[in-house]
Specification:
The chain has 240 residues and is mainly alpha-helical. The protein has one domain. It is 78% helix and 0% strand. It is built from 13 helices and no strands. α1 packs across α7 and α9 runs parallel beside α13. The radius of gyration is 19 Å and the shape is globular. The chain starts with a helix and ends with a helix.
Length: 240
Amino acid sequence: MLALFRKEIRSFLDSAIAYMAIGVFLTAMGLFTWVFPESSVVEYGYADMGAVFNSAPFALLILVPAITMRSIAEERKTGTLELLLTRPLSLQAVVGGKFLAAWALVALALLPTLVYYASLYALGLPKGNIDSAGVAGSYVGLLLLGGVYCSIGLLASAWAESQVTAFIAAAFLCFVLYSGLGSLAQLNVWAEGAQYLQKLSLNYHYQALSRGLIDSRNVLYLASVIVACLYGTSLALERR
């Protein structure tokens, strides 16, 4: 699996799409944090990274499907998937290697945003006047959310017939699970069921982690979604 992980990382880094997607993601984060008046910390006047953590889940909706859309769909199109599956690797190792490579690339994209934290830490009055625990919790939640998006992207790539279809399906599913379920829960038709529908939303657990309290229930839910999607990806490969 380690060899497959390295192969996937090299493949991502050799692709212009990866650099374009990461560039767009970081540009969007910079604009929301420093430029746009509605969210700029300069206009807001407080050392707070809320603009980053509120907009990052939606920016990842574009970044992650762009990374994962080719993971399986492209290999199937070029005929290399069959060759990969004939190697002495289990389906779980193949899926795990591809997932970890995509997740590592997401972590790599998030790494430069630590500059924002360092800047706000230095600019705060007094120096260091920033909720470091909340920032740490938000990064944990963002990494886990990125992992969920990666697993959904792999699932879409395994079932879709083309990269474009995989990208659209992954972006749609991520949006529904992150924001759509919470919006549906606000409709006045669910009665007591609205509470349970809200708790199925990825946003519910991500916001809970962003408060700086790492609750095992939130971590377990996000990890369970990852495992379920990776299992579905393995079933898709086994079926083929």
